Amino acid sequence: MTINATINDxxxxxxxxxxxxxxxxxxxxxxxxxxxxxxxxSENVTGxxxxxxxxxxxxxxxxxxxxxxxxxxxxxxTSFTIDTTAPHITLHSLDNDSAIQNGTIIDFTITDLSLANxxxxxxxxxxxxxNITNVTLPHPYEIxxxxxxxxxxxxxxxxxxxLGHENSTHYRFTIDDTPPKITGVFHNASGxxxxxxxxxxxxxxxxxxxxxxxxxxxxVYDQPMDxxxxxNYSGNYTVDGIIEIKDAIVTGHLTDEAGNxxxxxxxxxxIDTNKPRISLLSPANNSHIQNGTMINLTITDIFLVNVIxxxxxxxxxxxxxxxxxxxxxxxxxxxxxxxxxxxLNHISSAIYNITIDDTAPNLTIISPTSGYKTTISTVNxxxxxxxxxxxxxxxxxxxxxxxxxxEYRSLVNGENNFIINATDQAGNxxxILRTVTKYTTASKxxxxxxxxxxxxTSGxxxxxxxxxxxxxxSIFKGENVSYSFENTQNPIxxxxxxxxxxxxxxxxxxxxxxxxxxxxxxxxxxxxxxxxNIWVGNYGWATEKNIKDMTISFTVxxxxxxxxxxxxxxxxxxxxxxxxxxxxxxxxxxxxxxSITFTSSTPGFSPFAISGETVFTPAVIPTAYHTxxxxxxxxxxxxxxxxxxxxxxxxxAGTIMLWVLFIIVIIAVTVIIYWKKxxxx
Length: 681
Hints:
The chain is mainly beta. The protein contains two helices and 51 strands.
């Protein structure tokens, strides 16, 4: 191939020219001047391109030139095409000699470097069909079969390029719009299928269909089937997994080469690999309920046959809706066992724990007392209930601390009603009404100087508590328990009892009071040495159900006994119980030069008072004895009322001396009278 070019330089002579193909500068080829010499500003040049070894394609020629000043020009490019082959024709999306549906697009790929023209013709075996010849096929080279009737068609394609190369080929297609026929679908299942059972499916239809499948509705889809005989197709499904399905439809499918599909339903099947499901709707497991509450269950299984439950060792039938009526059940804990089985004897069981509780929770209101009257604008509502109860005051929730509560409420003038409700897990309610009357002016109150309201979890008024002392002891069943108190301000030496149960660490708390407890209605009898609150464990624990042989040891100083002229035999521990004070059995245990120790037995723990009775002392000559200074009633910061006597006996020895002196005086007076009588006589 020859290349010719004209090279011009406005001012300088051309001295050199060459060209190279694409980027192959190493094999550049010289261009020669047509007049044989490069000596002018304009030169016609020529050269030869060897295309012997070049394949079909488009190539770029780059021409370079230089002048006599060794200045290179801007490179000039041009291109040429080598095309030695005919156009290439390919059927793009379908297979030759295949069956297709009416409306399918037949598309081709036709390539050539210099493609010039594409045309086609169509011939058909259909009777009366008019053949199509030499019709131009424009890009993108697609033939639409819409409205083509069922028949076999031969399509011939011609393509030629600008160099005269030509190619042609033909393709065969069959238009098929008729679905295959199915005459029956059958299976081998005679009952309910279980895990591992094999379901066999047979289908009869048109022979020679390569795509035969079956579905089990809601379970499996497009399971393959083999043609085991002409028009007879077979497939299997092995039951596997958790399945519970009833009246599932088995459907067979045949799909021909053109994509036409036919489906047919066979008999239904039943599969059950699952056990019955048992669940408790209400109440919750391990809950407390009242006698008569319905226990609601759900038991589900499509093939459920039988449900029974066990009540006190007796198996009883349970019918839908699977409710158990607890009417007539006694209080106590019940383990209810449920069994359910289905048609294939899959068995499930469940155990639920229910506690029948018809007893309202304990509720003790410590403050205010019934009919309480006050002039202040708030009242403390305190008391104790079961630890697991829910407490409300006038429908407002109250937080419990180990079963105790203490809440302040505002008062208006006149009567204020407070409804205290304790509700247990079973819904049993204990309700107490307290009416508090607020006066606009202070009114006289009776009692031993107790403050209003209660403080802390015990319910005692905070300001009435002088000191507290708490001890904790690990308690085990059958052991003798002893709490020892070391605070010298505390007259309680120890608390002892025998435990009937094991309870872990249990605290005992002593509250030393300034005055009469605010949790009682009346002051204790006699001359009070100390008002005390004693608590052991949480509310309701320290009862004869859990402990026995309860004793309290306490000490009373001789100074207080003597200064208040107390009869030692009258000293006792008093306990407030059922709205009154009761004297506990008290005995003298030991004594020393400073104090006497007593021990009292008690049935429980609550507000207490150490008290004694003042005895009458005969009048004596005032100068006979030294009158001592006033003595503090108790060596602590607790203020107690103490009195100074004109004459202080000084204990038991002092009392004896007084009587001896009294007898001597009587004898002396008698002797003097006798002497005077003799003188007169």
